[in-house]
Amino acid sequence: MALFTDGPPCSIEDLSAQDSQLLDVASSEGINVTQKLELTHTEVGTELYRLLNRMGPTGLLVWASVRPNLAGVVVTPPLRQWYMFRTLEAFYADAYNSQLNDRYAGKRDQFHELAQRAYSRLIAGGVGMVTGPIPQPPKPTLSAAPGALPDNLYYATMTWVNRSSEEGAPAPLSSIMTSASTFALQPGETPLGVSGWNVYAGTDAELLVRQNESQLAIGDLWVQPNCIATTGRKAGHGQAPTYLQPVPRVLQRG
User: Fold this and answer.
1) I need a labelling partner for 98 at 20 to 30 A (CA). Which of 35, 190, 241, 251 fits?
2) Range from 162-166, 173-177, 238-242 that averages highest in pLDDT
3) Where are the domains of the chain?
């Protein structure tokens, strides 16, 4: 699972799958959906930060040797649903404020209720946390390199690995067309707590397979051999929670 701090947990496509009218309303009302995703990400992040750092009347977090922080929050299904419905609620609130259309008000209220239910499930189950968070890497750089990989369009990504051998979410895809060559992959700046990295590649963007047999060391440059592995470990979605953090049951604002 991705970390919350990696960016908005949902995409425009995810919102459209939940509400088929989204793009039409966005176009007619002049609402920037990407901006709405980012704003809601900031708002939900602020709520999570307050939850994780709230000291309840019974001293709920006194036992913790290290206070949980936003950098360790994993996007579990309840958190993703809360974020998605909060975004849709904010979207239709904007649409209603623009036209005072009762249909938009109905949608706003519907998604508000769904957001509250998702929030309640998140509180009941706890916030997913990892003790050694691995941020998603930036998009890696691909370049032609001497070799004889069959000419084709190749997709590649990479993941960071921490000292506990946990693997983070894969970087955004890069692609390259080879011609009498192979390709080299250069990762971005290494974050703290990372001990190595892996490369995933293939000719199908949805079926990327790990190419390196052993974990690559920090500072290594990956040059793809003259063949592409098509079987083996597939690119995952990030870290699973190390534990579920109980949080005080307080009324959600908004």
Assistant:
1) 251
2) 173-177
3) 4-133, 141-223
